[in-house]
């Protein structure tokens, strides 16, 4: 048997997340308190008692989900024995910390820098993302290429479920064309901007220096990175892929298929919510999928 641990990205947050771990476990409490010090504000106040709107701020959402996921992995102790791991977008950082490629402190600092850089890029140019259901990947890609303006495939979540990303007018035009082509749904998402698109180039540049200055070690198991959907253990390659991830699509469907091909027999999601469990099941219905 081979166990694949997967870590969620933005969108998995919910009010009250992590409070049970903080209240019940001293080690978790220490990690949350350390996070407040590193970030320079009490993220625990927003996680435990903030509103959905407060949690939706990119500068809050990304470190909050990272913290929840990494602390869950830490609490497993010796039971955390991954044969392989992957994270969806932001979740890739959680996976790398859980798998000992990054320290907790460095991982959190990078996630916060990433969040701030992405938020700044969103504010610089109005942009958005949209979910497209019921069209095959090639048709979605073809329609995006037919639109004038910036619009690209951003997330390959599971067969028949993609997310596109780009300038507002271009995304809206693409959505209309998707519906005309037979999409069950093509609708804008409530997000701050065009993640995983060329419009994130300023954020990519800002994060590249920080990643290059951070020490990465070889992870305890292969990590399947979003950009290539391939198993990676080399720290230099991990860095390159993390930088590229900001402007490249999240190849989640391809990563799940590759992990199964490489022998995964069970997927365990670590983090808030059950989004990835659903995506894995839709990609490989026969797979055993649970949460820790």
Structure description:
The protein has helices at residues 19-24, 26-39, 43-49, 52-56, 58-76, 91-98, 104-124, 137-146, 168-180, 201-212, 235-245, 252-261, 275-283; strands at 3-7, 84-87, 127-133, 151-158, 161-167, 185-188, 223-224, 231-232, 266-269, 288-291. It is of the alpha/beta class and 292 residues long. The protein folds into two domains: 3-123 and 198-291, Malonyl-Coenzyme A Acyl Carrier Protein, domain 2; 127-188, Alpha-Beta Plaits (2-Layer Sandwich). It has a six-stranded mixed β-sheet with strand order 8-7-2-1-9-10, with helices on both faces. Helix 5 (58-76) runs antiparallel to helix 7 (104-124) and helix 7 runs antiparallel to helix 10. It is globular and about 55 Å long.
Describe the largest sheet.
Answer: 6 strands, mixed
* Oligomeric grouping of the chains: single chain
Order of helices and strands: EHHHHHEHHEHEEHEHEEHHEHE
Stretches with pLDDT under 50, minimum 5 residues: none
The secondary-structure class comes to: alpha/beta
Average pLDDT score: 96
| Percent of residues in helices | 40-55%
Q: Kindly estimate the percentage of residues that lie in beta strands according to DSSP.
A: 15-25%
Q: What's a concise summary of this model?
A:
With 292 residues, the protein is of the alpha/beta class. It is 50% helix and 16% strand. Helix 8 packs across helix 9 (168-180).
